[in-house]
Amino acid sequence: MKVGLMWHGDRAARDDANLETHRLGPTAEAFRREGIDVVACVYSDAFADEVRRQLLELDAVQVWVNPIMDDGNSRQVL
Q1: pLDDT tens per residue, the chain (78 residues)?
Q2: 53: three-class secondary structure by DSSP
């Protein structure tokens, strides 16, 4: 099984995503202890299609994205 952990970020955050050093690291480790593969899924409307392709390769995703507009960005596409 392969699970994505999703949070909102910019291109740099996506390119540099590292679950071992991210605040979701303990969550990733808990999944791994159960034999589940975990990947980082950094989301932004700017590269939503890229994230969509990534998600289609996963069995599940846990999403930590503020559903309310912040910094002028909505989550309507998500």
Answers
A1: 999 999 999 999 999 999 999 999 999 999 999 999 999 999 998 999 999 999 999 999 999 887 776 667 667 788
A2: helix
